[in-house]
Amino acid sequence: xxxxxxxxxxxxxxxxxxxxxxxxxxxxxxxxxxxxxxxxxxxxxxxxxxx
Length: 51
Known about the structure:
This protein is mostly beta strands. The chain has strands at 5-7, 21-24, 29-32, 38-40.
């Protein structure tokens, strides 16, 4: 089980439910607990840029 963070004040783009989104950083995923819609997130480490 990975730690998830509640995203307060945001709506799901599919079902429009308020305050149902959770961020799971280790899996790079945002998920709606109401309808199950999920989206991958891009972090600085994932964008392919090099220093």
